[in-house]
Amino acid sequence: MVNIRNKREIDLIRESSQIVYETLTLLGENIKPGVTGEELNKIAEEYIHSRGATPAFKGYMKYPKSICISINEEVVHGIPNRRKLKEGDIVAIDCGVLKDGYFGDSAWTYTVGQIDAEVMKLMTITEKALYIGIEQAKSGNRLSDIGHVIQSYVESHGFNVVRELVGHGIGTELHEDPQIPNYGDPGEGILLKSGMCLAIEPMVNLGGKEVYTRSDGWTVCTRDGKPSAHFEHTIVVSDNGGKILSDGTLGK
Ligand code: MF3
Ligand code: CO
Questions:
Q1: CATH number of the domain located at residue range(s) 7-244 in this protein
Q2: What lines the ligand 1 site, CB under 6 Å?
């Protein structure tokens, strides 16, 4: 069942998403060569608590940290550790927050110093893919219209979308129905309705689409070791496309 949220609920999801935005902004200011995932995790955790919220990932299915940090060939769900970031890395940070019973969830990929031009293109295409997916999140469209435009756009640039992980509904749970693949034919799946709150999150590989999970049980990596990028926003479906709740503009 896909929840339709009323104005009060959307405001609460926006409030949590805003805290995620602020956290991701703060982390961006701290990303530089030499910094570790553990240090960034601590900064995030302290900030989220200072805003009267709870990190949504910590303890979720026994996940041990408050954010996910996925470097280069790591696609998603990297566990913050003592590895130091270095010039030329790309780093995807995923953050979720719970406040007053409602969740927000967003992820950005950052650069560390100067990076390779092809990798920069991977990042810009992934972010753009998210935005064109969000445009399709309008009432009257079908769910698969989102994934279809994301896949078409990404593949037209020679990159590949990951199939194993998907976006999701969000609200009083971090992961609600529906699942939102980043690929597929148009015109399939549920009818989108205003008030549905969704986390849309394309994961795009520079090389092949294949991934595997490391023996830590969490870190998803590309099979060919080439880099991957990830961008995610929490949005609400409206008559003229998705309205972003996690972009720091308080959705106006
Ligand atoms: N944003 C991620 C997702 O929607 C959440 C990370 S999973 C966790 O899948 F276990 F780390 F919380
Ligand atoms: Co998510």
A1: 3.90.230.10
A2: 57, 60-61, 63, 68, 77, 94, 96, 105, 168, 199
